[in-house]
Amino acid sequence: MIFMDRKHAGFGDLGQEDGLNWEAFWNEHEAAIKDGLAAEMKPYFDMLAKHYPEEARQENLAEKLPKEKEFVKALLSKLKELLAQGKKVLMLVDVDETIGGGYYDEKQEWHTLIRPAFLAVMKRIQSYRDAGRLDVGLLTTRGIPREQLDDPNNLQKIKSYIHPDHIYSTRKYQTLGSTHEEIEEIGQKENGVLRAGLTEADYNKFSIGGSVVKLKALEDITAQNPTETILVVDDFKFVNYLNQDRNLHGVHIDEQAQFWVR
What is the CA radius of gyration of the chain? Predict the structure, then answer.
């Protein structure tokens, strides 16, 4: 019998990221993710108990579980591809509708729910973080992500996975109100953050303010991290058009995988 160390078991060997096979991962974690969904959603259900009797709760959870599966498929497939290339990866994740969502309680205090599939993936990729092959950060339109990472009602449960040097809020990046024109301007920059050759139809698919500020942030982030492969995970469609020649890649969390609290 041949025994393999962690590297040759798929935790560091280039091209053999077997630990990131999404189907095997899902088969291993489906039951725990299902239970995690029920636990994560319970405070929200309890707050709106009249709207969520037991049958409605089960229907809601049954709708969410396939989205967790699609999230795992999209994220792990891309991570497996990029980590096999050998360069260090900086993964920047959006929060709302991507790795979780938020709601106001009866006291008008904000709460964030984190999808259990994201937490499970973070645990699986811990070995890559430990080996210095992967950092995980935030790229969000939320205004105070650092403070929320210390808040048990918000992002504290993911704090241990987030690199403190890679917490980016887009609040400091302004739009001029004509977001379509701003995105075209970004897209026309030579070797910019958007790939060359985009058409008018392409621009129409993501010409919203949230895309503009994130693209402006990415211009700075790529300049600050020129040697790393950057992976942006977001429910906005702009990630489909990032410039891979600049080592910029995207995972679009589309309607089949988005997380909604309601």
Answer: 19
Q: Are 242 and 193 in contact (CB under 8 A)?
A: yes
Q: Cβ contacts of residue 179 below 8 Å, gap of 6+?
A: 207, 208, 209, 211, 212
Q: Of the candidates 241, 231, 236, which has an alpha carbon nearest to the alpha carbon of residue 252? A: 236
Continuous H helices in the chain: 22-47, 54-83, 116-124, 126-130, 145-149, 179-187, 200-204, 209-224
Phi, psi of 248 (to 5 degrees): -110, 125
Q: How many angstroms separate the first and last alpha carbons of the chain?
A: 51
* Upper half-sphere CA count for residue 81 (Cβ side, 13 Å): 12
Mean pLDDT score of the chain: 92
The residue whose two tokens read 């709106």 is 48
Listed residue (241, 193, 247) closest to 220, CA to CA: 193
Non-local (6+) Cβ contacts of 188 within 8 A are none
pLDDT per residue as tens digits for the range 194-253: 999 999 999 888 878 889 999 999 999 999 999 999 999 999 999 999 999 999 999 999
pTM over 0.90: yes
d(CA 242, CA 210): 15
The residue type found at 98 is T
| Phi, psi (rounded to 5 degrees) for 138 | -115, 140
Q: Residue 111 pairs with which residues in a beta bridge?
A: 103
135-161 in b/e form (b: 16+ CB < 10 A) is: bbbbbbbbeebeebbeeeebbebbbeb
